[in-house]
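Let us practice reading a record.
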Amino acid sequence: MSGIEEASGLTGTLDDALDVALADTVRVTGASIGGLYLTERSEPVLRLVALCGLPLEFTAPWRRLPLTAPVPVADAIHEGRLVWVGGQDEMARRYPRAAAVLPYGFTLAAIPLTGLARCWGGVVLMWPADHPREITARERNHITAKAAGLSRLLDEATDPPSMPHPPRVVPRSSAPHPLQTGLAAADYAERLPEGAVALDLEGRITFLTGTAARLLGCNTGQLLGTRLWQALPWLDDPVYEDHYRTAVISRAPVSFSALRPPDNWLTFQLYPDASGISLRITRGEEQTETTGPPTAMRRPTTAATGRLYQLIHLAAMLSEVVSVRDLVGLITEHVLPAFGAQGLALSIADAGRLHITGWHGYPGDVIEHLNVLPLDTELTPAGQVLASGAPAFFADPAEMADSYPRAPRVSGKQAWAFLPLIISGRPVGCCVLSYDRAHTFTADERAVLTSLAGLIAQALDRAGLHDAQHHLVQCLQQALLPRRLPTVAGLDVAARYLPVTHGLKVSGDFYDLLRLGDTTAAAVIGDVEGHGIAAAAFMGQVRTAIHAHATSGAPPDQVLARTNRLLADLDSELLVSCLCVHLDLARARLTLASAGHVPPLLREVSHLARLLNAEPGPLLGVDTHAHYPVTTVPFPPGSVLALYTDGLVEAPGIDAAHTTAALVQHLAATDEPLETLTDGLIHHVWPTGQHTDDIAVLLLRPTGAS
């Protein structure tokens, strides 16, 4: 019998088996909440597919997460280990963005689902606020074993798991109480002087006594099946709903007071567990710190607490957006699903027209038709919202036609939200959310979208500046580094340049290959101290000097010495490491000199690889009278010389000598084309691509062909 059959029965599906396994994981580990995330095949995104012990509405910010998101489950998958968060203070320290959306007490574990051939996703488990901060060995074993079982189910499945939206809600198993016991409990509660109310985890009232109904000022029939903060206007405040959320997530008792008009103070005590919440209501005389303001002082309408936390979550993500492309992706992945929209058009206002910089849910020909429309208030709502600063909402095409009869109707959309993007009175652009069906915008949707427009405007302004700077440094980089390496007969060449500087993708690492004659060439690699524009500009000066001296026929030691003296005249505080190699293909040998640069790797024809330890001279710019020793070694056809900068081998927490030794072994064991070998060397040290310093790599292999 397979794992799926064991978990869900002989006729069960994979989804059924996963749901049963998740519920069992929550039960065995003693957790109060569990969530199953699976990785989407088409893109690096985690999707919440099953949920246990938590209302569905709580999960809106967490249903779809990029694998790079700063959250425990993404870290668990990235690092291949169990991640444990011992409390809210630790969550705030390690994951501040997630903590802003979950300001409750709990303990959390996240573990990857590592299969035989791939990582399927991860599981998140949460315990009440009173759980010990440290994980026990027994808990670790239970969590690990259950994660292995879920991975095995996924490995053995013949069909891929489904990716539902929203996620499936998995019930916790509980034995029903006998009817007589329930009646006796109800009679007991009715005799008590205080009110007793039972809530399910969704916050709905499943039982209440007559005393509770009288204290709340309603009859029992009006309240059953409703949520208190929705049924009673004087409890319609995010503060009160948040007390319920705190009880559900932390599984800890919560108490607060509220004023029932005109002057009746009531105390509410919530006692949660895995099946629901018991609520005790008593008369109170004093206003506590958690008491909300009197009804007359409150705003008539307030956005739901879930919406407010969703806004906080989106604000935190928008603050991390770098480029316009990132912004479009974030709105597509998080804002559209949160508000049930299917289409997005993000425009920048420039020279009296709207230029669409990103979109989703529209065909290309429609975007081409709508792009660069004039800001004519009679033609498009976008012009009006930018002129007035107020958003416009259209629930159906009839509303749009009434207000803007000349607006183009080519998209087929049925409802729209036009959000002006304005910063300090300056129009930045317009964000349009659209719907495939008619959609009535509620008051809280309008309020949250209006607030969100200001955040999107700031993010778009920053992203536009970044993209302009990125274009500038790309032009600078293309001017400073060789666009293509020259063709040298009898020599195979491959090169990579990977900057790390965020925002300004240019640095001081450089490389070059110079054709000196029919059978001779010079290879150079170096690293200017620092990053950014200053380092890149100085690198351009160094590269030009080396190019001039090398092509004039100077040997490697003289190339470095003359460049060193030139740098002294430039009076720069930046230092440079450099390795200069002269290749004589006819004589099958190479000559090199080093100015404090990391030594190259050499793989001989026999596939023995070694570190080519040439005696180095000082860095360029240190001593104008420095001497640079020369080393000559054989370089017959089939050999491979690997030049690189220190960013390739200097990984945090790892000795560079160990990393270099591992590269030597990889070079010796691999017989691939140079392009593939170059990528393999980088991936061997930085498998995730998250390198912490600039990397330049230049590989050379003589072929023996004239």
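A brief commentary: The CA atoms of residues 258 and 291 lie 5 Å apart.
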